[in-house]
Design brief:
Elements (H helix, E strand, L loop, with lengths): L2 E2 H8 L4 H9 L3 E3 L2 E2 L6 E2 L5 E3 L17 E5 L3 E6 L16 H8 L23 E7 L2 H12 L4 E9 L6 E5 L3 E2 L7 E2 L9 E9 L3 E8 L6 H8 L23 H11 L6 E8 L8 E4 L4 H10 L4
Parallel strand pairs: 8-15
Antiparallel strand pairs: 1-4, 2-3, 2-5, 6-7, 7-8, 9-14, 9-15, 10-13, 11-12, 13-14, 15-16
Helix pairs in contact: 1-2
Amino acid sequence: GALRVDRGLAERLPLSRSRVQGLIEDGRVEMDGAVVERASAGVAAGAVVVVRVPPKRASTLTPEAIPLDVLWEDARCLVIDKPAGLVVHPAPGHLTGTLVHALLHLRPEVSGVGGERKAGLVHRLDKDTSGCLLVAKDDAAHAALSAQFAERAVKKLYRAWTWGHLGARSGVVDAAIGRSLRDRQRMSTRTRRGRSAVTRWRVIESYDVAEELEIDLETGRTHQIRVHLSEAGHPVIGDARYGGGPARARGFHGPQEARARRVAGAAPRQALHARALTFDPPGGGARVEVVSPLPADLERLRTVLAGEA
């Protein structure tokens, strides 16, 4: 088949495919003098395609001095250590105090990179997940890193603490994820239009009522780890939305129930941490692995699980 116009432009320009699709929606792409209506339109050999990229608008968001730890940085990108409890992107209900506001203060040059509200962010983490987040400092770096995520060339390792025992040392969950048919706030594998999602897990440590898992995320769907583990019957400790809240302790009996209640009480949030990110720096050079140390709240949970607190 013919090359799609969005893919062709994304391969040739320092723009991500989603950015190209947005420009097409805004009527800013022409082929042989006619406005391109659809991102899926084919490009004939020799066609002249013109893209009118609007001048970079300064972000209308106000930088905020929210402290952030930088784990790694070069001239083109940086990896920050996202604290739990911080929303990544501004949205209704979170118009201030987000990670984007913090980034605009930390590195003003990320303003407008990847789009007005992106501030260079290439991916996201849930509000209550901590750990490694990759940020581009210019549009070309943003496009290059976005492409690595799309091609699954970025290795993403997480630590998760989950209720019960999965019954094997390792395994793979391969089940598409989309919006739940029953509750728009939740994601589910029971959905009409799911996107492929693959979660590889292995047990790092087994406790009487729970396990610590290392998770290798092949894809990065919204709530992917939380949904896959919950639907396997082993929700993330502290994740009330997907069945891992304090009520889960009632699923244990006898002395284990008391243990489970103690563990539930020690979980201040969902016990999920983006521990390591491995990628190719857009400026060139050797592949980089960046590791985020375990935050204090999860260290404490680990101590309680081990029966030492």
